[in-house]
Amino acid sequence: MELFDVYSLFDVTPVKASGCTIWDDKGKEYLDLYGGHAVISVGHCHPHYTAALKEQAERIGFYSNSVRNPLQEKLAHMLGEACGYPDYSLFLDNSGAESNENALKMASFHTGKDRIIAFRKSFHGRTSGAVAATDNPSIVSPFNAVHKVTFCNLNDAEAVESELAKGDVAGVIIEGIQGCGGINVPDDGFMKELRSLCTKYGAVLVLDEVQSGYGRTGKFFAHQWNGIKPDIITMGKGIANGFPCGGILLSPEFEAVKGRLGTTFGGNYLAMACAIAVLEIIEKESLIDNALNVGNYLKENIPVKSCVSDIRGRGLMLGIEFNCSVAPIRKALLYDKHIFTGVAGNNMIRLLAPLTLTKEQAGAFINALDEVI
Ligand SMILES: Cc1ncc(COP(=O)(O)O)c(C=O)c1O
């Protein structure tokens, strides 16, 4: 049997990793500024994380959500305190897309309405509702396209209000910082206005923090830079450092109805052990502050040559925009300098390093980039 060939692959085979370092099958060492697409939060194979996973696997790996699981309660308590939402409740699932799917479903249950407002250049995942709210027609099948979704331009509060005023909108979904769409940071004033508009028209404000959350931008969630509180926050990626896990935080406004949400694997023991270890490491090693400090260092020191048109983002969620295609630059970084980076569109290098990145490692990237551009 062959693999279903949907991924464009780099010719690298990682076999071992530690912190921000990866080794391939030939023993070559790489610096990871991509974090497996913003997933590696506390560094690869952190000893506290691997010990927690191993210990849990030896104790009990899985049972269903029909029995008490104290690890879920422990995570909910720790997460509430760590992220500043102790009065919200947590529903655990398996991925970012599933989290957004559940959030949109809850917005619709809660309001009895069925239309969603999303934003141009958004990415919310590949499941039915999440992909319908994603501004990329090439990945939306006719089956997905039947969802009622209206796209507005980011930062256009007037357009959002004119849609909300029609009275049929269940919710508005927006990324804390747009990731795949090109590291677009929404205006502070717009985010505040969006919050009041959703309240005014009774629509649920869903903040997709799948990529921008979990400390990546220098606050636990990116929207906390705007001083607003969404009704639902969605999470994934860094929550369990690579063990599949996702979740949503719901404000106290939402009623929990038995059976309304559910999943087989969500909240399983292994994912919980990983997610708890991640929060412990984030706190013990002050990784949110580190993300901000090292992110600022990168931003200030990335070489501003004539081919660089913009550098934007927050903390360790950064985009370097070029006025040319970045494909050759990324290739040179990977094959000549042995540095993993991400991309957004054709012209942007996207940096989503583990939150443990040091200034020294950031410096190595800066020097390498300087040499290849
Ligand atoms: C903002 C955002 N939302 C949702 C998703 C989907 O997450 P997953 O791939 O875990 O389903 C992603 C993935 O890149 C994302 O960046």
Which features would summarize this protein structure in a list?
35% helix; globular; 373 residues; seven-stranded mixed β-sheet; Aspartate Aminotransferase, domain 2; alpha/beta; binds pyridoxal-5'-phosphate; Aspartate Aminotransferase, domain 1; four-stranded mixed β-sheet
What can you tell me about this protein's structure?
The model has no long low-confidence stretch (mean pLDDT 98). The chain is α/β, with parallel strands linked by helices. The protein has helices spanning 35-38, 47-59, 70-83, 96-111, 128-132, 157-164, 188-201, 269-284, 287-301, 327-336, 359-372, and strands at residues 14-18, 21-24, 29-32, 89-93, 115-119, 148-152, 169-175, 204-208, 232-235, 246-250, 308-314, 317-322, 339-340, 342-344, 348-351. The chain contains 11 helices and 15 strands. Helix 2 (47-59) packs antiparallel against helix 8 (269-284), helix 3 (70-83) packs parallel to helix 8 and helix 9 (287-301) runs parallel beside helix 11 (359-372). Strand 7 (169-175), helix 7 (188-201) and strand 8 (204-208) form a beta-alpha-beta unit. It has 2 domains: 14-46 and 286-372, Aspartate Aminotransferase, domain 1 (Alpha-Beta Complex); 48-284, Type I PLP-dependent aspartate aminotransferase-like (Major domain) (Aspartate Aminotransferase, domain 2, 3-Layer(aba) Sandwich). The strands form 3 sheets. Strands 4-10-9-8-7-5-6 form a 7-stranded mixed beta sheet, sandwiched between helices. Strands 1-2-3-13 form a 4-stranded mixed beta sheet. The chain has a 4-stranded antiparallel beta sheet with strand order 11-12-15-14, covered by helices on one side. The structure holds pyridoxal-5'-phosphate. Pyridoxal-5'-phosphate binds at residues 95-97, 100, 123-125, 175, 179-180, 208, 210-211, 236.
